[in-house]
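Fig. S4 source data, part A: sequence.
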Amino acid sequence: MIGYLKGTLAGKRPPTLTLDVAGVGYEVEAPMSTFYRLPEIGAPLTLVTHLLVREDAHVLYGFSSESERALFRDLLKVSGIGARMALAVLSGMSVEGFYRCVRDKDLVNLTRVPGIGKKTAERLLMEMADRVPDGARIDSAPAQTTPAAREAEGALRALGYKPAEVSRLLGDFDSDGLSTEELIREALRRVHAG
């Protein structure tokens, strides 16, 4: 098993990146959450990895954090979920956001991930319910706590903000009682405030 790779980023074209490790170019598939954190080409990079051996190929998947890899591996254990679907989940929401959906049985947000229909989302919620880690930081980003906050998060992501940016913009003020428009306005004010 290949647990991690440490080298130089040689190329990136989602969903694949190339990592030069001592003169060997490893092609690695990664979720968009990892792509958002990639440095410039030529910069040093370390990824934790998961090697999937199939009858027709050996595919290496890379992640910027251990929590992403752990969730990827847990998703592969769910019946009907393959590597592509697991990458889609990690590309569509943060690890904390996914665990929050599972904890809250939030079918609506889960079905917003491209490729996840209602039946797949229901299966994920059911089979992942007992796999939410004890210390998962699912309460740290209140952006999912109210319907208005969920709508504001979706709107900011539609505007092109990355999940981590959205969590930062919406994550540290009380969203109770605020409308979707007020939340978006406050988040955008923070962007311009710098």
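Fig. S4 source data, part B ends here. Residues 142-193 form a domain with the Helicase, Ruva Protein; domain 3 fold (CATH 1.10.8.10).
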